[in-house]
Write a structure and sequence with these properties.
The protein is of the alpha+beta class and 89 residues long. The protein has a single domain, classed as Sufe protein. Chain: A. Helix content is 34%, strand content 26%. The chain has three helices and three strands, in the order βββααα. Strands 1-2-3 form a three-stranded antiparallel beta sheet. A hairpin with a 2-residue loop joins strand 2 and strand 3. Helix 2 crosses helix 3.
């Protein structure tokens, strides 16, 4: 199991903690930001293939910032992908 700590930029949340196993998101926790939205997003993503989550979340904008907590998660997953991680582009 791969554990990621994503440090987002220009958004409300402080950190995004992610566990990825065999290319699947097992646990997603948003620290800081909107508590309810972070919890809901974490529940929706649990069990989803990482590549599918990246496709859905990439480019989501929050208040004209050009990014969002969801987009930062997608970017962080993409940046942390390695050939041996079991995640596909």
């Amino acid at each position: 199991m791969k554990k990621l700590v994503i440090l987002p930029e220009r958004v409300c949340c402080d950190r995004i903690l992610v566990k990825v196993e065999d290319g699947m998101l097992r646990d997603v926790i948003f620290e800081g930001g909107c508590d309810g939205n972070g919890k809901a997003l974490g529940r929706l993503l649990a069990g989803m293939p990482a590549d599918k989550a990246m496709g859905i979340l990439r480019g989501v904008d929050c208040e004209g910032k050009g990014t969002s907590c969801a987009d930062q998660l997608a970017r962080g997953l993409r940046e942390n992908m390695e050939p041996d991680s079991g995640m596909n582009a």
